[in-house]
Amino acid sequence: MRYADPSANRDLLGNRTLLFIFICAFALVTLLQQILYGRNYIKRSLQFGWQSGDQLANWTGLFNVTDDPAVQSGSDSSSRYRPPASDQGGGKPILRVKQSELFDRWKSLQMCRWAMNISEANQFKSTLSRCCNAPSFLFTTQKNTPLGTKLKYEVDTSGIYHINQEIFRMFPKDMPYYRSQFKKCAVVGNGGILKNSRCGREINSADFVFRCNLPPISEKYTMDVGVKTDVVTVNPSIITERFHKLEKWRRPFYRVLQVYENASVLLPAFYNTRNTDVSIRVKYVLDDFESTQAVYYFHPQYLVNVSRYWLSLGVRAKRISTGLILATAALELCEENPAESCYIVFLTCGLRAGKH
Ligand SMILES: *[C@@H]1O[C@H](CO)[C@@H](O)[C@H](O)[C@H]1NC(C)=O
Ligand SMILES: *[C@@H]1O[C@H](CO)[C@@H](O)[C@H](O)[C@H]1NC(C)=O
Ligand SMILES: *[C@@H]1O[C@H](CO)[C@@H](O)[C@H](O)[C@H]1NC(C)=O
Ligand SMILES: *[C@@H]1O[C@H](CO)[C@@H](O)[C@H](O)[C@H]1NC(C)=O
Ligand SMILES: *[C@@H]1O[C@H](CO)[C@@H](O)[C@H](O)[C@H]1NC(C)=O
Fold it and tell me: What kind of membrane protein is this, topologically (predicted)?
């Protein structure tokens, strides 16, 4: 792993063990992303991250990253908004990683042992609340995005969305979650990393479970990934590719969401201009089918600030993955005193805070 400026790390996270755990956390997310693009046990069409190639560009610490046109085209900023590979006719997973090798690395990550320093942890939380403030800004709400706001997109920075009455009414009044509301949270990706892990029960026992990108939770996988889902993110490119942008039949998409029963659906509607219409249509679909599932949109400023935060710590990635964004939010929304519980079951059963 490459960290640009070690002294910056020390300022924010004086305690080395705490730093280490976040390095591990980040590595795990990266690992997930690699698997996402490599061999997978879910349908290929479900694989794409919403950030059009939701993987880490120059991440060379753990594995070899092969040529990805969306990544390689480098500094041209338009490449950031390019559709995933399948839009370009390919559709093949681009990154191929030896699974056995990944598994070994993953195991070594699991060895990561540490003790929580509560004062350090609280300090870290207050740093996060100053930079990012998930309890107020994770989603667009009527409070943080009043009627008439000219909302800036995260990546199409010249693009602006005028918040009109119609979309304003779709927003929740305020953030539905507050600081340290949940004791134990889980952020579960949709890579194959949990295969045969038997983590299902542990994930189900969490108070709050985030899942990335419509992962399968059918009976076949229950033992490994559990079923409990409180928030599920959806990648608009999946809606575009598999569900015809919801311009045709909507029931197939509705059925997919129904699998997650009471889960709220979270979309990056204001990530780039292409995402907006399809994301808003998800709300219409759920309303039409009289679903009780809530629809939320990431606040673009939150995404910007979280990315900026991690980049300032020297994380060398072109984009911050959805998994890392959710994990960052979980750090604020979950338990104040993590020493008393496991507070993040992070993608695997391996990495956990607390309980030592
Ligand atoms: C990634 O590496 C390539 C070649 O080493 C370089 O041209 C490019 O600017 C790098 N991108 C980032 C985001 O660091
Ligand atoms: C990465 O690629 C280089 C050259 O292609 C190879 O020598 C090296 O062993 C690879 N590393 C891993 C971890 O696969
Ligand atoms: C926790 O971190 C603080 C501040 O860095 C330090 O003064 C304290 O000794 C640490 N406590 C333990 C138990 O390591
Ligand atoms: C994001 O960062 C900017 C600049 O550091 C700050 O003014 C703003 O309040 C932050 N936004 C949130 C949602 O915390
Ligand atoms: C969904 O909510 C209903 C009523 O609150 C509850 O009975 C049911 O168990 C929930 N389903 C899941 C999967 O949590």
Answer: Single-pass type II membrane protein
Atom of ligand 3 nearest to the CA of 117: 1
Question: Which ligand is in closest contact with the Cα of 232?
Answer: 5
Q: Produce one character per residue of 178-191: b if its CB has 16 or more CB atoms within 10 Å, e if not.
A: eebbbbbbbbbbbb
For residue 187, what are the β-bridge partners?
A: 210, 346
Nearest CA to ligand 3 atom 2: 120
Residue 271 has pLDDT above 60, yes or no: yes
User: Rounded to an integer, what is the distance from CA 10 to the centroid of its chain?
Assistant: 26
Decide: 260 in ligand 4 pocket, CB within 6 A: no
Counting ligands in written order, the one closest to the CA of 100 is: 2
Domains of the chain: 181-354 (3.90.1480.20)
This prediction's pTM: 0.64
